[in-house]
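Narrative of activities, Objective 1.

The group set out to show that a structural description can be obtained from nothing but a protein's sequence at a throughput compatible with the screening campaign. Below is one input-output pair from the validation batch, recorded exactly as produced.
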Amino acid sequence: MFRPSPAHALFLPLLLSALLAATSAAEAARAPKKPGHAASSTAAPAPSRYRGRDDVKAFATEVAERRGLDSAWVLATLEQAQWQAAVTRLIMPPPPGTAKNWAAYRDRFVEPSRVAAGAAFWQAHAAELVRAEKAYGVPPEIVVAIIGVETFYGRFVGGFRVLDALATLSFDFPTGRKDRTPFFRAELEEFLVWCQREGRAAASVKGSFAGAIGLPQFMPGSINRHAVDFDGDGHIDLQRSSADAVGSVAHYLAEHGWQRGLPTHFEVKVPVDTADRAALLAPDILPSFTAAQFAERGAALPAEGAAHPGVLALVELQNGDAAPSFYAGTQNFYAITRYNWSSYYAMAVITLADALKTARTGKSGGSSNEKVRAQSGG
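Output recorded for this entry:
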């Protein structure tokens, strides 16, 4: 998964629309031309922007030495990459002043067709989901919801060559936002390592504009560090193996602090005093306060929240011109934000998870999840 800034994460549904449009345009451009068209259908492809560049050669040498790869193979692979203008557009943050609206964001993901597709995915992979919960402690509905939010169960996995996307962002990161060249160079290195280990042709792997891959949209580094061969075939394949995707999502959350049996959040009535409220909001989504400290600041929790033994975060979700929604997030809420650095993303996952559990069992999910829609005007 690509970890955007919080504002960028909230803007990602719009980016997805742009991505699909860009992908369609690219496919149309590659389609054979009709007779009489001004452009020749037999024209040679444009030369790589990355052939002969000193920075690319230096990177190839460093990666080969550091990771024990064949330097000629690394350089030849990088020279296949093509600069992608669409990638440089899509990686940019939303325009200044873009309003955050939790209710609108939620409704993009928690809607009948996605819930139905998620219920079908759960039914088809029930055994793997049970096994993942036993191994890692993550409930099936959370795993299924993450895959649903990320790719709509494989419908939207991205149409960019990952090699192109990562090379573009590694060697030609656009100006106008914080430079993340080091991050994407690290991911390009991990991508090369993964391709070599799995015997993949780098130029054939498709993914998002940021280089995320497969059903759960793992970045290459996350594949190498956290993905698991959950179907036991000797390979990690997040593009074609739903079992590997299920196991890898659960393992990722466990590695990032998910605690078995812990609720994700509690209801909370925020302090009336603005200074107390600001103090609780200061750490953002990082759990930092005990239930007693919440109470000392005037935040009222339900009985189960007041008895919570761990630390909590006061989470604020803006609703455009309407009043914001507030929740007390636990360590498990925070674990979901390690997948995507956004409280809006985490709550969308939680709300979809509850809808999926209701669709499957008729019973609503974990702590106060069923009340999220009602509290935010849904």
